[in-house]
Amino acid sequence: MQADSKSYDDINVTPMVDLYLVLLLIFIIMTTAGVQGIKVNLPKSGAPASQKMDAPKTQAITINNEGKIFLNTIPVTLAELESKLAALKSSMPELPVVVRGDSGTQYQTIMDVLNVLGGLSITQIGLATKARDK
After folding, report:
1. What DSSP state is assigned to residue 33?
2. Which of 63, 81, 116, 133 has the fewest CB atoms within 10 Å around its CB?
3. 48 and 55 Cβ atoms separated by less than 8 Å
């Protein structure tokens, strides 16, 4: 009967760790859900992506169906886009860029963005598309 009278000096931290892990999981899910960018209806392509670009370095230029231009979810004009990309290019010479144009966007706006990229000598350009339904 001596074991019953023994005092417990240890605290069971397992439920507390479980709670912290659940809270961390909820935080991770909510954070990644909030940074998905501008929703556009991407055009379809028959060819698969040629190469994967590193996500943290890659700059996303989105053109919605109204012709508005966004650089990483921030609305910009063509002049602002050029100045911001020039600043990024000076710090990172091999700047990868992905152009995401809505399928309803006028082609001229996409060409204007591509001309800005060409003028800045940005050569790593990806055009985002959806896979074609079979």
Report:
1. H
2. 133
3. no
Q: Is the pLDDT of residue 91 over 70?
A: yes
Q: Which amino acid is at 47?
A: A
* 2 alpha-carbon distance from chain centroid: 63
**Domains present along the chain, CATH in parentheses:** 44-131 (3.30.420.270)
Indicate the average pLDDT of the chain.
Answer: 78
Question: Is residue 69 helix, strand or coil?
Answer: strand
What tokens were used for 4? 């019953």
Max intra-chain CA distance, the chain: 88
Measured CA to CA in angstroms, residue 109 lies from 33, 69, 101, 116, 131 at distances of 28, 9, 9, 11, 23
